[in-house]
């Protein structure tokens, strides 16, 4: 994929007739093409836009080069090469260096909860009892103009402590408790544009918009109210190598200088969620050593990346996605190496979200079902047996993580937080983390072969059906502005939907035999077409005819099926679908 068209080139967005500018007070070279709103204008101030434009102008060529390097690496892998440890940076891996000391404000991260930046969700997550709330502009959010701008408004109010939400249906006002979780923010990945904002005639880089607007408005208040002199705090997604980490470090350093705060104030945790990045964990920490507070096991994107990296390798086919968990050798090896690397460098090694089979025990995503009082149960309605079974599975997974040496983990639901907190607390000897006590030197022997071992398991027709059904419904929701979707008692976001897409593509490309259900059939376009047709009928039955007609299921089906059958695998589902949610509005305050 050519960079200029694939990542930040022209996009086939919807347009409302008229000029651009939207009534916002913009600096020279900046066009706001999203809808005008007085509330948004308080975020899109001239000073804030100058800050974002300054970052874009300084770093856009570095980002473009990094994306070109991704394309070159993909070509190497497609030609048969394997990712591995870089001999050129062996001195970094072997060196005796440390990251900056973890700030006291975030020394204890035993349980973290994540979710999009919707107003009520932000309040509930901060009040959930977790140590950290990661507010997500990435995989859990569909990046419509309204979602992005309202998210910035909500986070600004949260940092200022003024956020509230009136639920008229329940006759209740939601406000922050006296004690709340520490706020981390996850911007989008380097590859995603923000096509509602143009800078010098090209779409802005999405993550610099997310980071820049949030940092500009909140750095001073955050350092006083949450960071104890440090912050703001971030999660960084989708990086593939240390070159991309260096760009983020330079962005942080530049931002600190622009507002006059100390170097190292900003701190970030990097999600290791691409296969190439697993071979550069030391190098990534080294580049961010003044700004790092650790690494996180981004399990689902990591599985997606395994397929994407080996799209040209017919000998590396994934089994049904429900079989690819932390019990697989390549997943366990990456987790162990991450713990050893982080603790050796003095920062947190964070665990990930529960395995997918645990979600199957849950009825909905917590933000859609959170009760008025913070109840300590998993919301499985009318099924206490399933409720208890799910809780035991969660405890087992979290016990594995803490015994391996993880300093904290992610929870999918607030009802799980007390149980997970108890598991970690009981196994951490009253310490806020395990950085100094669990060095995991045994993981020093992990090899390239360990990290690349082919996952074992069978492939079934039901696996193909589930991938298709879930993928179509996720895309349909994403197109209408929802980035986190409960489907079949399993939480789907962009990462899990990506697994469905690339697995279908891989099975189709190589005509895999479905060997797990005794059918012995091979996956081909004819079979896939039949599956798509039947699953669309099932979706219509399940959601109801009216919702099916009003929703974007047919459009989603076209997008998902086209990506599954494309001769060349698209890099990202959301990059292709993004053009369908960009809407350009005319100049002047819009009534639309």
From TrEMBL:
Residues 182-354, 375-454 form the Malate synthase TIM barrel domain. The active site is at residues 186, 493. GO terms for molecular function: malate synthase activity. It is found in: Glyoxysome. One of its GO terms (biological process) is tricarboxylic acid cycle. Pathway: Carbohydrate metabolism; glyoxylate cycle; (S)-malate from isocitrate: step 2/2. Keywords: Glyoxylate bypass, Glyoxysome, Peroxisome, Transferase, Tricarboxylic acid cycle. It comes from the Eukaryota. GO terms for cellular component: glyoxysome. Belongs to the malate synthase family. This is Malate synthase. It comes from Artemisia annua (Sweet wormwood).
């Amino acid at each position: 994929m050519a960079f200029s068209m694939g990542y930040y080139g022209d996009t086939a967005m919807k347009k409302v007739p008229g000029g651009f500018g939207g009534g916002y007070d913009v600096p020279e070279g900046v066009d706001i093409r999203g809808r005008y709103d007085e509330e948004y204008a308080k975020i899109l101030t001239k000073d804030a836009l100058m800050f974002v434009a300054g970052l874009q102008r300084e770093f856009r060529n570095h980002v473009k080069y990094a994306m070109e390097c991704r394309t070159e690496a993909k070509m190497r892998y497609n030609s048969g090469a394997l990712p591995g440890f870089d001999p050129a940076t062996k001195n970094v891996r072997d060196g005796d260096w440390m990251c900056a000391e973890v700030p006291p404000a975030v020394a204890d991260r035993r349980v973290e909860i994540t979710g999009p930046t919707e107003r009520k969700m932000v309040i509930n997550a901060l009040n959930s009892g977790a140590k950290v709330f990661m507010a997500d502009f990435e995989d859990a959010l569909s990046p419509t103009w309204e979602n992005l701008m309202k998210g910035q408004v909500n986070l600004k109010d949260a940092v200022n402590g003024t956020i509230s939400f009136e639920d008229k249906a329940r006759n209740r006002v939601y406000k922050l408790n006296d004690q709340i979780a520490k706020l981390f923010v996850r911007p989008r990945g380097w590859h995603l544009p923000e096509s509602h904002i143009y800078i010098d005639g090209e779409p802005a880089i999405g993550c610099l918009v997310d980071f820049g607007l949030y940092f500009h408005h909140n750095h001073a208040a955050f350092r006083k109210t949450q960071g104890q002199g440090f912050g703001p705090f971030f999660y960084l997604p989708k990086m593939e190598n240390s070159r991309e980490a260096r760009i983020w470090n330079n962005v942080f350093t530049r931002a600190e200088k622009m507002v006059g705060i100390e170097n190292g104030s900003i701190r970030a945790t990097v999600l290791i969620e691409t296969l190439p990045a697993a071979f550069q964990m030391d190098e990534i920490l080294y580049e961010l050593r003044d700004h790092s507070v650790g690494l996180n096991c981004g399990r689902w994107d990591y599985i997606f990346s395994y397929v994407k990296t080996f799209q040209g390798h017919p000998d590396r086919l994934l089994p049904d996605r429900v079989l690819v968990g932390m019990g697989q050798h390549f997943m366990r090896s990456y987790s162990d190496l991450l713990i050893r690397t982080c603790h050796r460098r003095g920062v947190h090694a964070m665990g990930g979200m529960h395995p997918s089979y645990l979600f199957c025990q849950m009825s909905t995503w917590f933000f859609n079902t959170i009760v008025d009082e913070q109840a300590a149960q998993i919301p499985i309605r009318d099924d206490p047996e399933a409720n208890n079974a799910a809780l035991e599975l969660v405890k087992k997974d979290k016990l594995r993580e803490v015994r391996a040496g993880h300093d904290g983990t992610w929870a999918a639901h607030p009802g799980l937080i007390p149980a997970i907190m108890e598991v970690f607390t009981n196994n951490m000897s009253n310490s806020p983390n395990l950085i100094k006590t669990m060095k995991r030197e045994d993981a020093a022997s992990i090899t390239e072969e360990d990290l690349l071992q082919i996952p074992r398991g069978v492939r079934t027709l039901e696996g193909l059906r589930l991938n298709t059904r879930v993928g179509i419904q996720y895309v349909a929701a994403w197109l209408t502005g929802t980035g986190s979707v409960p489907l079949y008692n399993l939480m789907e976001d962009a990462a899990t939907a990506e697994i469905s897409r690339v697995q279908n593509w891989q099975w189709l490309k190589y005509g895999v035999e479905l060997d797990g259900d005794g059918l012995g059939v091979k996956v081909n376009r004819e079979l896939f077409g039949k599956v798509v047709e039947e699953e669309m009928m099932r979706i219509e039955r399940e959601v109801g005819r009216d919702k099916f007609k009003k929703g974007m299921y047919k459009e989603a089906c076209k997008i998902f099926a086209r990506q599954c059958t494309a001769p060349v695998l698209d890099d990202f589902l959301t990059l292709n679908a993004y053009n369908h949610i960009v809407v350009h509005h005319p100049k002047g305050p819009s009534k639309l």
